[in-house]
């Protein structure tokens, strides 16, 4: 399907984007990556555009002559960032969403994929695709969740006026892997715990370990994205494992993957977020999608990547943050 086709991946330097680019290259696509940070370590065959996709003209330029667009650009935010810097999350994401979808539509691309988020859901034990509009996003994901919902709604609106505009929407769970954000201030749970474990004598973990989350490796998210486009899935599609892992279980797995013995201290007075969030994977599994990376395999791979790249991680993410100040 993608052989010889021109494919644009926005946010292609991130943890999902890297995996997606590799898969597309295996399918012999002509891949262009657009991102605001440096395209470090991208394969030589990839065309790299350093663009600020908050600007509509940049999005138009990126989409010129493109057959397929995978829009992965976004901002990963920790609970601390959500509470203290919500405008730094919501405003750029709405700009990314709006500009990229309109530029892709004007360019008459063959198909457009939009990366939404688990943050669009209200907290429930099981999160089903069709339940989104019955509730509001969780207060813990209020601003980012609404920004992603608006991006989905924009595509629904296009579907009314421009029914020929093909698009897919995917909602990944908690994603992790190589090239993740290990920034100590804004990292998500897995990269944050890995970094803490290497930089401290004890691993201090917020809460009591009881919250349950659904984790998926970036490679499986990328595979799910290709699956959605190849099968022209227009219904929103959850991408997770379909089963929950408690934070205490996750910490145990991480500790098993570390090269040193690590003492864990639970900071039970700290906030922990929603108690349970598991994606219902009935739709994706029913269509034939399957995950390929186990949690332990994925965590071990992520730990190994972190160890090998510690000397450049801080420099890369400090530069990324500076571009959005």
Attribute tags:
325 residues; alpha/beta; 7-stranded parallel beta sheet; two-stranded parallel ribbon; globular; disordered C terminus
Describe the structure.
- The protein has ten helices and 15 strands.
- The strands form five sheets. The chain has a seven-stranded parallel sheet with strand order 3-2-1-4-5-7-12, with helices on both faces. Strands 6-15 form a two-stranded parallel ribbon. The chain has a two-stranded parallel ribbon with strand order 8-11.
- With 325 residues, the protein is of the alpha/beta class.
- It has helices at residues 15-26, 56-63, 79-84, 87-106, 142-161, 189-199, 218-230, 247-257, 282-287, 295-323, and strands at residues 6-10, 30-35, 47-50, 68-71, 111-115, 126-127, 167-172, 174-176, 202-206, 212-213, 215-217, 237-239, 245-246, 263-267, 278-279.
Question: Would you summarize the structure shown here?
Answer:
This protein is 42% helix and 18% strand.
Strand order of the largest sheet: 3-2-1-4-5-7-12
Task: List how many beta strands DSSP finds.
Answer: 15
- Tell me the span between the first and last alpha carbons: 40 Å
Give the rounded overall mean pLDDT: 91
Task: Give the CA-based shape.
Answer: globular
Helices, by number, come to 10
Taken in chain order, the helices and strands follow as EHEEHEHHEEHEEHEEEHEEHEEHH
Low-confidence stretches: 320-325
Beta fraction: 15-25%
* Helix/strand/pairing category: alpha/beta
Report the C-alpha radius of gyration, rounded.
19 Å
Instruction: Assign a percent range to the helix content.
Output: 40-55%
The major sheet is characterized as: 7 strands, parallel
């Amino acid at each position: 399907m993608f052989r010889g086709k021109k494919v644009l991946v926005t946010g292609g330097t991130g943890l999902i984007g890297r995996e997606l680019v590799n898969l597309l290259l295996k399918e012999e696509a002509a891949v262009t990556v657009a991102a605001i940070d440096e395209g470090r370590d991208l394969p030589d065959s990839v065309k790299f555009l350093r663009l600020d996709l908050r600007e509509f003209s940049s999005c138009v330029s990126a989409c010129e002559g493109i057959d397929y667009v995978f829009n992965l650009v976004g901002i990963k935010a920790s609970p601390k960032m959500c509470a203290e810097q919500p405008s730094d999350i919501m405003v750029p994401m709405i700009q990314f969403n709006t500009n990229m979808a309109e530029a892709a539509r004007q360019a008459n691309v063959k198909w457009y994929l939009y990366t939404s988020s688990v943050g669009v859901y209200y907290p429930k034990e099981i999160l089903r695709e069709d339940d989104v509009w019955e509730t509001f996003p969780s207060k813990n994901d209020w601003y980012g969740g609404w920004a992603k919902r608006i991006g989905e709604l924009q595509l629904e609106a296009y579907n009314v006026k421009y029914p020929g505009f093909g698009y897919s929407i995917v909602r990944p769970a908690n994603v992790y892997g190589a090239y993740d954000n290990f920034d100590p201030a804004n990292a998500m749970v897995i990269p944050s715990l890995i970094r803490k474990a290497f930089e401290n004598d004890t691993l201090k973990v917020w809460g009591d370990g009881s919250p349950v989350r659904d984790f998926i490796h970036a490679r499986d998210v990328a595979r799910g994205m290709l699956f959605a486009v190849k099968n022209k899935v227009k219904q929103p599609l959850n991408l997770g494992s379909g089963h929950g892992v408690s934070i205490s279980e996750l910490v145990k797995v991480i500790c098993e993957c570390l090269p040193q013995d690590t003492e864990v201290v639970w900071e039970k007075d700290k906030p922990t977020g929603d108690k349970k969030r598991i994606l219902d994977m009935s739709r994706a599994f029913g269509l034939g999608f399957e995950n390929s990376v186990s949690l332990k395999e994925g965590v071990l791979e992520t730990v190994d990547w972190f160890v090998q790249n510690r000397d450049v991680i801080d420099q890369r993410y400090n530069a990324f943050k500076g571009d959005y100040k």
